[in-house]
Amino acid sequence: MAKLAVGFTGTIRQNAPMQEYTSWRIGGPADWLVEPGNSDEVRQVLDFCAANETPLTIIGRGSNLLVSDAGIAGLVLRIGENFGRVEIEPQDDTYLVRAECGVLLAALSRQTAEAGVGGLEWACGIPGNLGGALMMNAGAYGASIGEFVTAVQVAAYTGAEKRKAVLQTLRGADLHFAYRSGCLPEHTVALGVALRLPTGNREASLARISDILSSRRQNQPLEYPSAGSVFRNPPGSHAGYLIEQSGCKGLTVGGAQVSEKHGNFIINLGGATAADVLCLIEQVRQTVAEKTGYTLETEVRLLGRQN
Ligand SMILES: Cc1cc2nc3c(=O)[nH]c(=O)nc-3n(C[C@H](O)[C@H](O)[C@H](O)COP(=O)(O)OP(=O)(O)OC[C@H]3O[C@@H](n4cnc5c(N)ncnc54)[C@H](O)[C@@H]3O)c2cc1C
Hints:
By secondary structure, this protein is α+β, with helices and mostly antiparallel strands. It has three domains: about 1-80, Uridine Diphospho-n-acetylenolpyruvylglucosamine Reductase, domain 2; about 85-220, Uridine Diphospho-n-acetylenolpyruvylglucosamine Reductase, domain 3; about 225-305, Alpha-Beta Complex (Uridine Diphospho-n-acetylenolpyruvylglucosamine Reductase, domain 1), CATH 3.90.78. Helices cover about 25% and strands about 25% of the residues. It has helices spanning about 1-5, 40-50, 105-115, 130-135, 200-220, 240-245, 275-290; strands at about 10-15, 30-35, 55-60, 65, 70-80, 85-90, 95-100, 140, 145, 150-160, 165-170, 190-200, 250-255, 255-260, 265-270, 300-305. The strands form five sheets. It has a five-stranded antiparallel beta sheet. A four-stranded mixed beta sheet has the order 1-2-5-3, with helices on one face. The longest helix has 19 residues, at about 275-290. The chain is globular and about 55 Å long. The protein starts with a helix and ends with a strand. Flavin-adenine dinucleotide (FAD) binds next to strand 3, helix 4, strand 8 and strand 12. Flavin-adenine dinucleotide binds near residues 65 and 226.
């Protein structure tokens, strides 16, 4: 690790408590947490992991992650505040927006709306990064990020042995976005995204953002740490509705509770562990299967050592 640190402008932290890096405020320590300062340093980190056979985990703002209480072995590469540039360029009657992957989706939604650029109002209440949004194909109110992507800059391993990383640009048309599922191969780091967005109306977009935010405050338990929707919506139904119909709202294990306000949110009442949340996930899954016949799959990503 000392070798990687030479000339490194980003930060390197040993035994980093992952509860500080996740919206659920849950998770044991990562052996190493590295936040590169620029794209070339991301490439160096990938080379370092390959050369030292260090397990690599990529994260953004940690708003869709359940990290094990035993933490994460190896190196966690976080794309965050160091990747925050946004450029908005008018092109014919649309806009090309180039943004780095550490930009908060909610901030990008507001910034584009303020600039009279439409299309991203739906994203105003999603607390992840653009990179995390890309990897989850984040969406709300019938729209999702994949619809707007024209290109993605990545750091990715190349060659048959996958030991050397390069910076490259992928065309949006070659990426396959599906419901809440990632579009890049494992161990590929998204660095920047180009989005094609329509011309909007500043006042109308800001009014829509304000409506969406107040509806989310009303319907989601935003006063507690969570990871948003825990389960994916099964085809033809909604996980939140099925959970409510199955009587699971309010179920509690340790510090974790199925929200009374929104059945698909598991909230951290204080001191919840990953084991509490996993136990609750299993209870909900079983109850919903028994009562409705639907088998729910998790939308949140589970990371880290098995407890
Ligand atoms: C209150 C609340 C409300 C939410 N509402 C919504 C919603 O309406 N719609 C919705 O879709 N989601 C929602 N979410 C979930 C979450 O915010 C999104 O999935 C978000 O896009 C995740 O971004 P992140 O930066 O936090 O990614 P993380 O949680 O850190 O990571 C998610 C996945 O992306 C990968 N990843 C992250 N960054 C990169 C990168 N740069 N390169 C490669 N891989 C990367 C990680 O490996 C992981 O697999 C909500 C969450 C909360 C807490």
